[in-house]
Amino acid sequence: MKKNVKKRNQIIGLIAAIATIIGVVWAIFFQSNSETSNSYGDQSPIIKNTKGDVRIEYNAYSINNYKGSLYKIDDGFKKIIKGGNNIKYSIEKIDNQLYNSLIAEINGQSYVLIDYKDENCLNIIDQRDFDSNNTIDVLVEHVTACGGNCCGNSYFFYTYLGDGHFIKTEEFGYSWSDPLIEEWKGFWSVYVTSENEGVNNDPPVEKKERYVLDGYMIVKVEESERMSIKSVAEITSDRFDYNEKDKTITLLYDLNIDNVKDTIIASFWPRWGRMFWEIHFGNGNIFRSGIGAKRLGVLKTKTNGYIDLVIDQDNILKWTGTEYK
C-alpha cells in the first residue's frame, strides 16, 4: 500500500512539474505577442522611427469606448467608413460674433461639431483622409488668443465614426506658425514647431513634433528639441519675479578685452517674460540693445576684438565696430 501511495505521489509531482513548464512557456509567448499586437491602453502598438521605438500616445478616448469593428493595418488601426469621403467641413461665423462654429456636412445633413457659444476661435488648416480609412478628416487650429498675440495656437482633428457620429482628438502643439502637412511612412502627418514663447519667464524651448491620426486618436511619432549654445556666463529671465518689476540683474565681464570689466545690465519685460539689456563699457561707452532676451550669454569666441554674445538658444550677436548685431 505504501509503495502505491509513493508511486501515486511521484506521478502527481511529475504532472505538476510539466504543467508548470507549459504555463511558463505559454506566459512568455503570450506576453511577447501582446507587446506588439494589443492596442488597448498602455499596451498600445509601437511605431518605429528614427529615434527608435516610440510607444503610441493615445488620448483620453479609449478604444474600448467604440463598439465598431476595428482591424489592424500596418502599425495603426483602421475602420473603413462608408460614405465618409463625402464630408465637407467649414467654419461659420454669425454676424459680429468674436467666436465661430465648426460645421460638418454629409449627405445633405449639417452637424454643428463646435458651437460658437462654446467661445472658441477656430480655423481649418486642412481637410483630407489623414489616416486612409475612406473618411475625410479635418485638422483645426484653435486660436488661443482669438486675435491677440499672448499665446501660441494648438491643433486637433475631428473625424467621422459613421452613422452621424463624430469625435474630436486631444489638442496638440503650441505654435506661432502654421503646421506642415507631409507624408510620413505612407501616412499624412502634421509637423508642428512648438515653443514656449508667450507671457512667461521660462527658459527658451523649441521642439519639432510630428503627429499622425490613427483612427480617432492622435499619435506623436517624432520629436526633436533645439539645443542651446553653451556660454561661459549668462543671465536668464527666470531669475526675475513678476512681483519685482523694477529689479535689475548685472553681469560683469571684460567684453572688449581691455582688462577692465564691463557691466551688462538686464531688466524685466513682463509682457513677454523677456529681458531688456544694455552694456556699460569700462571706457564709459554705453550700448543699448533693442532685442528682448530670455537668455543672454557670453561666449568664448570674439569678433572685431569684442566677445560674442548669444541670445536665447543660438542667436549669436557679433560686434560690428559700433554695436552688437
Please give a handful of descriptors for the protein shown.
325 residues; mainly beta; five-stranded antiparallel β-sheet; four-stranded antiparallel β-sheet; 24 strands; 43% strand
Structure description:
This protein folds into two domains: 42-225, no CATH class; 233-317, no CATH class. The strands form seven sheets. Strands 8, 9, 10, 11 and 12 form a five-stranded antiparallel β-sheet that branches. The chain is mainly beta and 325 residues long. It has one helix and 24 strands. A hairpin with a 4-residue loop joins strand 19 (262-269) and strand 20 (274-280).
Beta-strand level of the residues, as a percent range?
35-45%
Task: Give the % helix.
Answer: 10-25%
What's the number of structural domains? 2
Describe the global form: elongated
Q: Helical region count?
A: 1
Category from helices, strands and their pairing: mainly beta
Contiguous runs where pLDDT drops below 50 for at least 5 residues? 22-80
Radius of gyration: 30 Å
Order of secondary-structure elements: HEEEEEEEEEEEEEEEEEEEEEEEE
> Could you tell me how far the N terminus lies from the C terminus, measured between alpha carbons in angstroms?
102 Å
